[in-house]
Automatic annotation (TrEMBL):
AMP-binding enzyme C-terminal domain ranges (all copies): 419-493
Lineage: Bacteria, Bacillati, Actinomycetota, Actinomycetes, Streptosporangiales
Protein name: Acyl-CoA synthetase
Organism of derivation: Actinomadura craniellae
PANTHER family in UniProt: LONG-CHAIN-FATTY-ACID--COA LIGASE (PTHR24096)
Ranges of residues in domain AMP-dependent synthetase/ligase: 14-368
Record Pfam families: AMP-binding, AMP-binding_C
Signal sequence extent: none
Length: 509
């Protein structure tokens, strides 16, 4: 049968694979591999002493720090399930997650503590704090300073992570991910597109509480080489460049908003990064112009776009090194089957746009406490992603847009991403977000929000005229609003929910 595919066992194997070495750099200090492993084993005992039992959910809402990974590994060792929560959620959103998940413990950091206290107010929830001791909290140092806890075996289909979706279309839903599903997804991603000299020094600015950050962490646990990571508490463009150069980073995961922030930094590219070979990009579409400009400023770097969602253990497809196709999010990861279907559920041929549907053992078990939503999302066990795209003749996947974000103007389909990509081709536009405005005659009208480069004198009227000539009568936005910053969600995707609110504010003013 082979080794049991559970994350507690994966951590144990990863700890024992190599001799002790400097494996994690964070805010000026190195953390050695066996030091981290020992802390996780002891924290396992600490969580057990605290009353955490196999199957319990524990919310992990922290700024990036070494204790995030230690907490994940300790809880998996104890047989519990992690519930990672982005530190940018509101107290109300956190309260919903606490009540819905049934978690009785939250692990947090000092910066986030007031929000956790507000969200947990009046609930039977214990707060474990990484940082200075604070009244009403349990110091994390107390958990990882006692005896080690034993490894608790779990079944492969047991819950390993309960991850809440962003809630942009309503209340956040808990996505149930299993041990085998996460184990398999990370293992297959680590094997896909292997090169003869695989990179092992990475710089990680992603929030580890996001699905993308979690899967990057798990991929590292599968590594056959000693893995050295530089972890950032949060992303800063200038610091990313300094750390990548100082530690000779070879690979780095980013999201498109981070790439745009780097490109907006006047000094980006001035510091050579000769060791950097690959940047992986996911979580949102990356405009082609941004990819080209990034690679122009950092010669020798290849951006590899991928695609995934929380419901699929964060991955579905990825461009293999040296075999990418520009504009594509790559080939399905081994173990993932991707089919394009029309609205009636019929499979569509290569080159035809339809809904992207996925089957894999790494697809979620379902939504927590939401059977109807599970059935709607997974008819027959196949996940309907809600994304529109197509496969080419060689199986490369192209994502066009979100089905729910589609704008129907005068009977014609307009995908916001097409308009956004065209806008960012303008030399003064640094970022763009597009939504539809109800229109009594046309059904919907196309409206854009843009941020401009510093010192730009380009006007909204200039951009409307420029777009009219560029993408034609149906698609071009009749309204363009210049804003200081196009809003993004806590996971750096264009926040269309906020854009629609802004549009309402413009309309009522």
């Amino acid at each position: 049968m082979g080794e049991q595919r559970t994350l507690g066992r994966l951590a144990e194997v990863a700890w024992n694979r190599f001799d002790d070495y400097e494996s994690l750099f964070f805010e000026g200090s190195w953390h050695r591999s066996q030091q981290l492993a020992g802390r996780a084993r002891r924290a396992c005992g600490g969580f057990t002493e605290l009353g955490v039992r196999p199957g319990d959910r524990v919310v992990v809402m922290m700024a990036n720090c070494p204790e995030v990974g230690i907490t994940y590994q300790a809880l998996w060792r104890a047989g519990a399930a992690i519930t990672p929560v982005m530190f940018l959620v509101s107290p109300e959103e956190l309260r919903h997650i606490l009540l819905d998940s049934g978690a009785r413990v939250v692990v947090t950091t000092t910066e986030v503590l007031p929000k956790v206290q507000a969200g947990a107010d009046g609930l039977d929830v214990r707060i474990v704090l990484v940082g200075e001791e604070t009244t009403g909290t349990i110091p994390f140092s107390q958990l990882d300073s006692g005896p080690e806890g034993p490894l608790v075996d779990r079944a492969e289909d047991d819950l390993a992570a309960l991850m809440y979706t962003g809630g942009t279309t309503g209340r956040a839903k808990g996505v149930m991910l299993t041990h085998a599903g996460l184990y398999s997804a990370a293992g297959r991603r680590s094997e896909q597109g292997q090169v003869s000299d695989p990179p092992n020094r990475s710089i990680v600015p992603l929030p580890l509480s996001h699905a993308y950050g979690l899967i990057v962490t798990l991929i590292g646990m599968h590594s056959e080489l000693p893995r050295v990571s530089v972890l950032m508490r949060w992303f800063d463009a200038a610091q990313w460049q300094r750390l990548a150069a100082e530690h000779r980073a070879q690979i780095g995961p980013l999201v498109p908003a981070m790439i745009q922030m780097l490109l907006a930094d006047p000094g980006f590219g001035a510091t050579p990064l000769p060791d950097l070979r690959y940047v992986t990009s996911g979580a949102a579409p990356l405009p082609r112009e941004a990819l080209d400009e990034f690679e122009r400023r950092l010669p020798g770097v290849e951006i590899l776009e991928g695609y995934g969602m929380t419901e699929t253990s964060a991955i579905i497809s990825s461009n293999p090194p040296g075999a990418r196709r520009l504009g594509s999010v790559g080939l399905p990861i081994p173990g993932y089957q991707v089919v394009i279907r029309d609205d009636e559920g019929r499979e569509l041929p290569p080159g035809t746009d339809g809904e992207i549907c996925v089957t894999s053992e790494s697809v979620m078990r379902g939504y927590w406490n939401a059977d109807e939503a599970t059935v709607a999302a997974m008819p027959g066990g196949e996940l309907r992603t809600g994304d529109i795209g197509h496969l080419d003749e060689d199986g490369y996947l192209y994502v066009v847009d979100r089905k729910k974000d589609l704008i129907i103007r005068n009977g014609f389909n307009v995908f916001p991403r097409d308009v956004e990509d065209a806008l960012t081709e303008h030399p003064d536009v640094t970022m763009a977000g597009v939504v539809g405005r109800p229109d009594p005659r046309l059904g919907e009208e196309v409206v854009a929000f843009v941020s401009l480069a510093e010192g730009s004198s380009t006007t909204s009227a200039d951009l409307v005229g420029w777009m009219r000539d560029r993408i034609g009568q149906v698609k071009y936005p009749r309204e363009v609003h210049v804003v200081d910053a196009v809003p993004v969600t806590s996971v750096f995707k264009t926040d269309r929910k906020r854009l629609r609110k802004m549009l309402d504010e413009y309309s009522s003013s």
